[in-house]
Q: What sequence folds into this?
């Protein structure tokens, strides 16, 4: 494990907790997706468990504790996440955790629990989890990780020390992407991933730009009446909605910018700017804002059992109608 370049300030804060002998019993790490919050939590866990940590606070990687941690057999390290077949962290998982925490740590250092994503605890699990915070176990550090802190009960949030991982500057992300030897334009990846470095890297590794370009062409064909929204929705519901909704949202944001004649350099999709500028000349700005509101509502429904096919039909039909207004 290595620290990601934009996490140094966060790491310094974590090291200060230890240096000042003020290691929090409960730590809440927040920040948008793709910033490496899990990596940061793992680094901190390794540091707390290590018997011979380095001067920079990192785990040595060679002591008995580090070898156990690397082999995923450390008795004082626990990771709580949804089971593979489920979407939520259940009350049974939390009850099992509470039982384990009644026992003393097996080593002389800390015991560390990472809960990620913490917002996936269902109501019953969250209520049971409060016991871990209200009655902290001996030498135990609980690290909660989430990109949706508002989804956590206030009773949990209020009992945690907060650590927010901020989005890094474009220059830092683009430099890091070049070090990863990505073939695509780093600045374009940065914009498409809306500043999320790990998401940008994923886009590059999975050749997502090709898929995005195909989807944009279909979206453009609907606007120009070359394709029917229902047919496109049939194809799109098989694709990851976690990609499609943000893509459409970025196209709408850029369309609004085009309506106000903002420079292409300030757009997410500057490689598509000619098509977007052409569209902006035949579309109402008010309608774009209304359509963007629909996208925001749709994004909020992604974690619910909503019919994704129907959702995309509604979005694309609205898009078709928006382009027919005079």
A:
């Amino acid at each position: 494990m290595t620290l990601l370049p934009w996490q140094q300030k966060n790491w310094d804060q974590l090291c200060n907790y230890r240096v000042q002998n003020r290691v929090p019993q409960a730590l809440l790490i927040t920040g948008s997706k793709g910033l490496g919050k899990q990596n940061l939590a793992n680094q901190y866990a390794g540091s707390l468990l290590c018997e011979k940590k380095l001067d920079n606070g990192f785990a040595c990687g060679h002591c008995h504790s580090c070898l156990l941690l690397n082999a995923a057999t450390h008795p004082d390290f626990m990771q709580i996440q949804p089971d593979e077949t489920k979407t939520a962290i259940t009350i049974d998982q939390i009850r099992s955790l509470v039982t384990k925490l009644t026992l003393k740590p097996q080593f002389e250092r800390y015991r560390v629990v990472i809960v990620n994503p913490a917002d996936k605890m269902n109501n019953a699990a969250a209520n049971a989890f409060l016991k871990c915070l209200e009655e902290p176990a001996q030498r135990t550090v609980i690290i909660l990780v989430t990109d949706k802190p508002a989804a956590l009960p206030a009773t949990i949030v209020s009992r945690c020390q907060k650590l927010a991982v901020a989005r890094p500057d474009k220059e830092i992300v683009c430099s890091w992407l070049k070090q990863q030897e990505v073939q695509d334009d780093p600045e374009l990846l940065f914009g498409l991933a809306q500043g999320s470095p790990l998401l940008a890297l994923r886009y590059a590794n999975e050749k997502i730009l090709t898929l995005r370009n195909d989807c944009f062409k279909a979206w453009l064909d609907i606007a120009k009446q070359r394709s029917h929204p229902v047919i496109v929705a049939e194809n799109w519901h098989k694709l990851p909605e976690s990609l499609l909704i943000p893509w459409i949202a970025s196209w709408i944001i850029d369309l609004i910018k085009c309506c106000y004649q903002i420079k292409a350099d300030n757009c997410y999709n500057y490689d598509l700017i000619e098509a977007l500028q052409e569209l902006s000349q035949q579309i109402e700005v008010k309608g774009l804002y209304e359509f963007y509101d629909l996208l925001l509502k749709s994004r909020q429904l992604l974690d619910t059992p909503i019919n994704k096919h129907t959702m995309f039909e509604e979005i694309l039909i609205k898009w078709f109608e928006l382009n027919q207004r005079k």
Observations:
- The mean pLDDT is 93.
- Residues 241-259 form the longest helix (19 residues).
- The domain at 5-164 is CATH 3.40.50.300 (Rossmann fold).
